Amino acid sequence: MNKDLFTSLNFNHGSHIENRLAMAPITNMQSHDDGRLSDEEYKWLTMRANAGFGLTMTCGAFTEMSGKGFPGQLGIHNDDMLPGLTKFAKGLKENGSLAIVQLIHGGMRAAEEHTGTQPVSASDQAKFNARGLSTDEVKSVIENYIQAALRAEKAGFDGVEVHGAHGYLLCQFLSATLNQRTDEYGGSPENRARIIFEIVDGIREKCRPDFNVSVRLSPERFGMRLEDALYTAKRLFDEEKIDFLDVSLWDFKKEPEEEAFKGKKLMSYFAELDRKSVKLTVAGKIMSAADVDLAYKMGADFVMAGRAGILHHDFVAQIQNNADFESAKLPVSEAYLAEQGLSETFVKYMATWDGFVSK
C-alpha cells in the first residue's frame, strides 16, 4: 500500500484533504420529501466522514424543484434548506473531513411525479416527455447552480461539485446526441459545454477564494462520447478554475466502449492529460486496498470509494491497517447494511442494485 495515500493533498484554491480517500456521492433517498435533511441521511454520511475519509461528498442535491430526480433527495434549492445543511456541514467536518455538496439538476431524468412539472432537457426528448429549455431558462438554470453554491458556502460546506455526469441535465447538454440546440448552448463541443463553464465561472466569481469547486464527468453512456468528455476535461484543466475533476468510470480498470479508443484503459485518457494545478479523482468499482493502490498508481491524485464506502463506513481505516483488505462479498444482508448506518429506506433502494442485497 502506497503510504502517500495517507498524506495530505493541497488543492489549487487553498483547501486541502488529510488523506487521498474520498467518499463518493451516493443516491440514498433518505431525506424529507421537500428536500430537507433527515436524521437518517445525516447519520449515514457523518459515520463515514468521522471514520476517516479525507473528503466526504453528499448525494446530488437538487438546485431547483424542476431538477428533483428521485424521492427523498436532498435539496439545496432555497433557504428553507439552510438549517439542515448547516447541521450537515458541521457534522461532516467534525473530524477534519472536507465537506462537499454535489449540485445536480435531473433534467429529463427528473420525472413529473417528483417535481410537479414537465421534465426539461437540452432539447425535446419524447421518450421522457421532456421539453427543451429556452435560452432564458438555461440562464436561470445556471443562476440556480450559482445560488445553490452560495447557499452551500453559507451553510459551512467547504465546496461544491457540479454534476455533469450520468445523463443528468448538464450531461444532456454535453451529449451531441441529446443536444440538438441551435443557440449558443448547442452545436459545437464548446457550445455544448458552455453551460458547465458558465456555472463554474459564476461560482468562482461569487464564492470565497478558497471555496473548493469541482466537476464530475462520465465519458460513456447517456449519449456521451469520449472525445467530448476529453474536450471538457482539457478545458477545465487549462482554465484552472476548478480544484479537481471527478471522473466516474463505472469500472476504473475498463477499456473504452468506443472501438477507436480501445487498446488502453479508459482512465488513462484522463490521467495522461496536462492537468496543470487541477487534481484528478476517479470512481468505479474501487472495492479493495489493492484497487485504491492501483487507481493511485494509474494517475489519480485521490480516489473515490462508492460501493466500498456503503459496505464499510470505516473503509479508510480498513485499508490503512490491512494492505490485503477486500470489501465484503456481495450480496450482503439487510441487517449488515443496517449495522453500517443505512436506514430501511436506503436498504430498500440498495436492493434495486443487481446482486447487492441478499433476498
What keyword list fits this structure?
12 strands; TIM Barrel; globular; eight-stranded parallel barrel; two-stranded antiparallel ribbon; alpha/beta; about 35% helix; about 350 residues
Shape: globular
CATH superfamily of the largest domain: Aldolase class I
Distance between the termini: 35 Å
Rg, Cα atoms, Å: 19 Å
| Average of per-residue pLDDT values | 97
In the predicted model, the low-confidence regions spanning at least 5 consecutive residues are none
- Just give the CATH class of the largest domain: Alpha Beta
Structural class: alpha/beta
Q: Kindly estimate the percentage of residues that lie in beta strands according to DSSP.
A: 5-15%
Portion of residues in helices? 25-40%
Overall structural domain count: 2
CATH topology descriptor of the largest domain: TIM Barrel
> Order of SSEs, N→C?
EEEHEHEHEEHEHHEHEHEHEHHHH
Number of strand elements: 12
Could you give the order of strands across the largest sheet?
3-4-5-8-9-10-11-12
| Known CATH architecture of the largest domain | Alpha-Beta Barrel
Number of helices: 13
Largest sheet data? 8 strands, parallel, barrel
